[in-house]
């Protein structure tokens, strides 16, 4: 009895240490998630004090909602293209700026710089460059250009370029850190054995960089799937819904159209999609890394 | 080999110029008047004219927005660091099922996209009077930040040998005494990582302030900018002066803390 009390007293400090983080987490994540799940079964408008529950109606409606499918399609198009471009560019830069080029520290600073600027700012600066800056620049060479953000066919690509500009910084740093963990002798001995630059990269560097690739693909893809700020401050999902992604669709439904209940249903569906994507991704990478032993 | 190297150098340089170009245009615009911009778009300003900046300073509430951003960032990051250091230590040192379950809950919380909790969070914030309050938004950032923070701190503590702590305990040191006198001073590197990552995120965040700090006197820099751009969309030179003013603090932070930031991101990736 005595020893139990003493061990409890010993334990209680550790439990107390846990408490602030758990309380913050409950407040910011767990409680809102639980209430969000409940609201997804209601037709609440987001303002009225009374909430009326309607069972699975919202979910049935969502499956027939063509706006939802369009938003999902746009989200995945944006996220997949961006993930690919960011990783190719940041890996190329990392390979060159690890120790190959001169002034590599200056270059690293420059390529990282856009990542520290808020998305509101970069959206504004790019919106202007797209509509006035670049057209004026290109007109000197006799090329006509209008802002891609105003054209449904190019708006998505216009956004992806901005996101690419802002997004290569951190992955590049992670790739450089990964490269610095690879012993230089490995690549050198491969070259002595007659492997060219490409072969050495393909068979030595790239496989050893696999953990960094895993992390970067995961980070960029999950980040890109959740994109909101950039779309909201530049196109608001337009023109003609060409850049309407899940988060802007949810925001519009919940806040502008006062369909909070349905907005929550969309959010829950989106959450489930994200969980599936993450699980699949982690599964693929785990298998691949085991394969390489 | 040399010509190849030079060619690559040129290509990377061109890319670097392309990267800086949008920012260069922003600075250029900020120093020119509307007439100068109209006359020649890419010409240098005829003189170093700070009129736009003075005007932007006077029409915006820039000092207030900077203060708001500072208060929110400092409060939130302090909460995140303290709460996650304590919890991370606890989880790392008690290898019991209960603590592992709590740890897993923190991890899975990271998968929840903000959109799912956005509206309930707003409603909850309203009823608890957290909306339009520095403390209120800091508590929410705290809840977001502890998830990754606990991961970092517990990982780091697991790498520290327990021997010193055990020796201290035999000498009669209590658990809090051990944590604050022995463990805490050892946590500097991981604290730097957590600090830097959260400062960059919170300082630049737009969505949560959009929900939580709509009242004019509480707006942070990105939110203030969003409204300023909307209001002065016709006076681009003014808007750009304001944009440059908004960039200066965070770019300065980045340039001074660059080594920390880069180390922080690399360490975070390897741990994750």
TrEMBL record, chain A:
Residues 72-281 form the ABC transmembrane type-1 domain. The keyword Transport applies. It comes from Cohnella nanjingensis. GO terms for cellular component: plasma membrane. Belongs to the binding-protein-dependent transport system permease family. Coiled coil: none annotated. Keywords: Cell membrane, Membrane, Transmembrane, Transmembrane helix, Transport. PROSITE patterns: ABC_TM1 (PS50928). Its main location: membrane. Pfam families: BPD_transp_1 (PF00528). It is found in: Cell membrane. This is Sugar ABC transporter permease. InterPro entries: ABC_transporter_permease, MetI-like, MetI-like_sf.
TrEMBL record, chain B:
It comes from the Bacteria. The chain crosses the membrane at residues 7-31, 65-89, 101-122, 134-157, 178-203, 236-256. PROSITE patterns: ABC_TM1. It holds the Pfam family BPD_transp_1. The keyword Transport applies. GO terms for cellular component: plasma membrane. Its main location: membrane. The keyword Cell wall biogenesis/degradation does not apply. It is found in: Cell membrane. Gene3D superfamilies: MetI-like. SUPFAM superfamilies: MetI-like. Keywords: Cell membrane, Membrane, Transmembrane, Transmembrane helix, Transport. Residues 66-257 form the ABC transmembrane type-1 domain. It is a multi-pass membrane protein. Belongs to the binding-protein-dependent transport system permease family. This is Carbohydrate ABC transporter permease. It comes from Cohnella nanjingensis.
């Amino acid at each position: 009895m005595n020893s139990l009390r003493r061990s409890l007293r010993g334990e209680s400090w550790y439990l107390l240490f846990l408490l602030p983080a758990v309380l913050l987490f409950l407040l910011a994540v767990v409680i809102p998630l639980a209430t969000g799940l409940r609201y997804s079964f209601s037709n609440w408008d987001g303002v009225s004090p009374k909430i009326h529950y309607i069972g699975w109606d919202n979910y049935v409606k969502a499956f027939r909602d063509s706006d939802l499918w369009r938003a999902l399609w746009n989200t995945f198009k944006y996220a997949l293209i961006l993930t690919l471009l960011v990783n190719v560019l940041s890996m190329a830069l990392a390979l060159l700026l690890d120790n190959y080029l001169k002034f590599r520290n200056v270059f690293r600073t420059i390529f990282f710089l856009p990542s520290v600027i808020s998305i509101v700012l970069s959206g504004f600066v790019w919106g202007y460059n797209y509509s006035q800056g670049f057209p004026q620049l290109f007109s000197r060479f006799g090329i006509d250009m209008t802002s891609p953000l105003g054209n449904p066919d190019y708006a998505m690509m216009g956004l992806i370029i901005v996101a690419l500009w802002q997004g290569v910084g951190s992955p590049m740093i992670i790739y450089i850190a990964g490269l610095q963990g690879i012993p230089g002798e490995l690549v050198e001995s491969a070259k002595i054995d007659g492997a060219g630059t490409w072969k050495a990269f393909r068979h030595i560097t790239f496989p050893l960089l696999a953990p960094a690739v895993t992390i970067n693909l995961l980070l960029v893809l999950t980040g890109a799937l959740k994109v909101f700020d950039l779309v909201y401050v530049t196109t608001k999902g337009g023109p003609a819904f060409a850049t309407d992604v899940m988060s802007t669709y949810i925001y519009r439904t919940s806040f502008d159209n006062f369909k909070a209940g349905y907005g929550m249903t969309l959010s829950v569906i989106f959450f489930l999609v994200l969980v599936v994507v993450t699980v699949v991704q982690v599964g693929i990478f785990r298998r691949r890394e085991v394969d390489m032993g | 080999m040399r010509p190849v190297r030079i060619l690559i150098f040129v290509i990377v340089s061109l890319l670097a110029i392309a990267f800086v170009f949008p920012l260069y245009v922003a600075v250029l615009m900020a120093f020119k008047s509307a007439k100068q911009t109209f006359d020649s778009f890419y010409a240098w300003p005829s003189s170093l004219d700070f009129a736009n900046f003075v005007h932007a300073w006077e029409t915006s509430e820039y000092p207030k927005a900077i203060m708001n951003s500072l208060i929110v960032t400092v409060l939130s990051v302090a909460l995140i660091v303290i709460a996650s250091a304590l919890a991370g230590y606890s989880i790392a040192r008690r290898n019991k099922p209960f603590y592992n379950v709590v740890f897993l809950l923190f991890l899975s919380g990271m998968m929840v996209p903000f959109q799912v909790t956005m509206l309930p969070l707003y409603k909850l914030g309203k009823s608890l009077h957290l909306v339009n309050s520095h403390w209120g938004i800091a508590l929410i950032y705290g809840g977001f930040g502890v998830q990754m923070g606990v991961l970092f701190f517990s990982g780091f503590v697991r790498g520290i040998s327990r021997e010193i702590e055990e020796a201290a305990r035999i000498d009669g040191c209590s658990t809090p005494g051990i944590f604050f006198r022995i463990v805490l001073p050892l946590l500097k590197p991981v604290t730097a990582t957590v600090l830097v990552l959260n400062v960059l995120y919170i300082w630049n965040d737009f969505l949560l302030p959009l929900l939580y700090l709509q009242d004019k006197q509480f707006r942070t820099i990105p939110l203030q900018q969003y409204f300023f751009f909307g209001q002065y969309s016709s006076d681009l030179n003014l808007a750009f002066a304001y944009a440059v003013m908004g960039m200066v603090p965070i770019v300065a932070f980045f340039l001074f803390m660059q080594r920390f930031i880069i180390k922080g991101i690399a360490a975070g990736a390897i741990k994750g």
